[in-house]
Specification:
single chain; alpha+beta; Alpha-Beta Plaits; 40% helix; globular
Length: 135
Amino acid sequence: MTNSRRKFIASSVTLAAGAAASVAAPVSPEKSKAPLVHHVFFWLKNPGSVADRDKIIEGLKTLRKIEAIKELRIGVVASTEKRDVVDNSWGVSELMFFEDLAGQATYQDHPIHQKFIKDCSHLWDKVIVYDAIDV
């Protein structure tokens, strides 16, 4: 075996051992800075209307100006595998993160949120909200 080949094999073994050790090392969970999750699903009155969907998305983007919202994600149905446990009947979703219940309450009454409801509620047929807090 050549000297450079031995070095390569030795370094590969060292890398593999280090990788295994890092995978096995316990990960300490960090407390989230935004432990309250607010996930909202919207069913459109006109599910085939891209214009209506886009109006709701634009309205949701205005909510980013509300300081109590620490993070906001807006989504549409993904083309994932069809399974019994997957509900893809909705049209648009928003996923928000808040520091606490007070922040979420501030958001509910905020004028920007109220304007979004006033301007866009005629576009949806149904809304479901799931709120959760980290444990």
